[in-house]
Amino acid sequence: MSSSSSTSTPNFSSLLPDHIKSTVQEWINDDIPSFDVGGLVVGKTPKSAQLWMKSPGVFAGKPFVDSVFEAVGCDIQWEDVAVEGSRIDTNNSKVLMATVHGPVNALLRGERTALNTLSRCSGVATAASDAVKVARDLNWYGHVAGTRKTTPGFRIAEKYGLLVGGAATHRLDLSQMVMLKDNHIWSAGSITEAVKLARKAAGFSQKIEVECQSLEEAIEAASAGADIVMLDNFTPTQLKKDAKTFKSQFPHVIVEASGGITIDTMGDYLSEDVDVVSQGKLTQGYAAVDFSLKIVK
């Protein structure tokens, strides 16, 4: 087993609100809506269980697992290797990440919720880390971002995974930043009208981003007061050309490239005139990292 971690990776667990415990409890309640017959079978004898990482990836999701086992009345002791942001190579084996202690029925009640959360959060972190590495290897230092394409009820864990993996979360929800897409613009009548009305409500404290299908739309958005323009579904060649033209007129407006971009095609979209590249697949098409929890005999 080998692992590597960046000393610049902050401890993001302090970002999580206190009500994350109620969110985790909802996850547990969803898994145990009524009787737990398996829990009856195993009883309440105190036992220990070992948490194993079985496939390589970037480790993320530790605070959620802490909350799961706290909710079911168990204690967890993490190994030194279990550092969020570390890329762990299992070398075709498995790595012991933690040991959990508690009544055996409680251990098993928390098992699947903890594993599901850890597998998916680590999967997002791994995908994010891989995408950021592609950008940095090409000497591009803008923001690699996710999108709002997240799993309902699991958004906070997926956004957390993006951060641990070194990517930007993009807006967290509808209230954080104003995003005016095609439906908003069509309903408002024009980009200019949509931006003006949004600014009246958002004031100075929120940025406004406008989804644009052409250079002309981006110029209209910036002229109306948008802080960010998203060049959506452009070809790489057209994107670079239009981003350069746009930045020559509006150097302080952020340019985001989006729309069908994947880790395999991302390099084609990077340029000095693009500030953000966002990918829905970071939270919508990621591969889960494999973990297991085994009772110690």
Task: Describe it.
It is a single chain. The protein is 40% helix and 20% strand. The chain is α/β, with parallel strands linked by helices and 297 residues long. The strands form three sheets. The chain has a six-stranded parallel beta sheet. A four-stranded antiparallel beta sheet has the order 4-6-2-13, with helices on one face. The model has no long low-confidence stretch (mean pLDDT 95).
Question: Helices and strands, in N-to-C order?
Answer: EHHEEHEEEHEHEHHEHEHEEHE
What structural category do the secondary elements indicate? alpha/beta
| Radius of gyration using CA atoms only | 22 Å
Adjacency order of strands in the biggest sheet: 7-12-11-10-9-8
Q: How many β-strand runs?
A: 13
What is the gist of this entry?
Helices cover about 40% and strands about 20% of the residues.
